[in-house]
Automatic annotation (TrEMBL):
It comes from Pediococcus stilesii. The lipid II isoglutaminyl synthase complex catalyzes the formation of alpha-D-isoglutamine in the cell wall lipid II stem peptide. The GatD subunit catalyzes the hydrolysis of glutamine to glutamate and ammonia. The resulting ammonia molecule is channeled to the active site of MurT. Its EC number is 6.3.5.13, 3.5.1.2. Forms a heterodimer with MurT. Keywords: Cell shape, Cell wall biogenesis/degradation, Glutamine amidotransferase, Hydrolase, Ligase, Peptidoglycan synthesis, Transferase. This is Lipid II isoglutaminyl synthase (glutamine-hydrolyzing) subunit GatD.
Length: 234
């Protein structure tokens, strides 16, 4: 059986500074191995986000100027995005997208940029410093190890109901203090990993796609998809 998933690329015409759109190419690659076609569409400024229309959401990041524009627009999508998240919709949020799902983040110039508070984290900025370099984390619950590259000024602190995507084995992570990197909340995965994250960590791509397939096709036999072997790419 051939499956289909609708993917919303939030503000993909604005937030593409760091090449994280490559995550969508990785998703398409792994989806093909799982007998699944992806229909990827941008949901941008002044466009409604329908929580019932999408099976997967990707939310990338950009520079502070673009994110300030997105911050204002996304307030009109706040309730629908929150409904999607609370209903178990799978989402991957990278860097600025990750930050904007929280309460706020402080930009490099000290401006407090409002998020949507769908997740309970917040992000501060560093003075004259960035976390840059290779990073390795391990998820305590699954034992999965993720490899990536971080490049961020923000220092994110997780809140209620949130757990890290992994604990830092080398690198800095969310804030360089509590050994956490990224976030997991329901079926939302947030991270500072560039690279893009899914090209080096196919197990995460598989997890996102399986979640979406089970949610959309609850009675389907997805045993072959579950048994797909992901070869390391790092």
């Amino acid at each position: 059986m051939k499956y289909e998933l609708n993917v919303a690329h939030l503000y993909g015409d604005l937030l593409n500074t760091y090449g994280d759109n490559g995550n969508l190419l990785a998703l398409k690659y792994y989806a093909k191995l799982m007998d699944t076609d992806l229909d990827i569409q941008i949901v941008s400024l002044d466009e409604k986000f329908d929580p019932n229309a999408w099976d997967v959401v990707f939310f990338g990041g950009g520079q502070d100027y673009e994110q300030t524009i997105v911050s204002k627009d996304i307030q009109g999508k706040k309730d629908d995005l929150t409904d999607y998240i609370e209903d178990g919709g799978p989402m991957l949020a990278i860097c600025g997208g990750y930050q904007l799902l929280g309460h706020y983040y402080v930009g490099a110039d000290g401006e407090k940029i409002k998020g949507i508070g769908a997740l309970d984290h917040y992000t501060l900025s560093q003075d004259d410093n960035r976390f840059i370099g290779d990073i390795v984390i391990k998820n305590k619950e699954t034992g999965e190890v993720y490899h990536g590259f971080e490049n961020h000024n923000g220092k994110t602190y997780l809140g209620k109901g949130e757990r890290p995507l992994g604990e830092v084995e080398s690198g800095h992570g969310n804030n360089g203090e509590d050994n956490s990197e990224g976030v997991v909340y329901k079926n939302v995965y947030g991270s500072y990993f560039h690279g893009p994250i899914l090209t080096r960590n196919g197990e995460l791509a598989k997890k996102i796609l399986l979640t979406a397939l089970k949610r959309k096709y609850p009675n389907a036999d997805l045993s072959s998809q579950e048994q797909l072997t992901i070869k390391p790419t790092f």
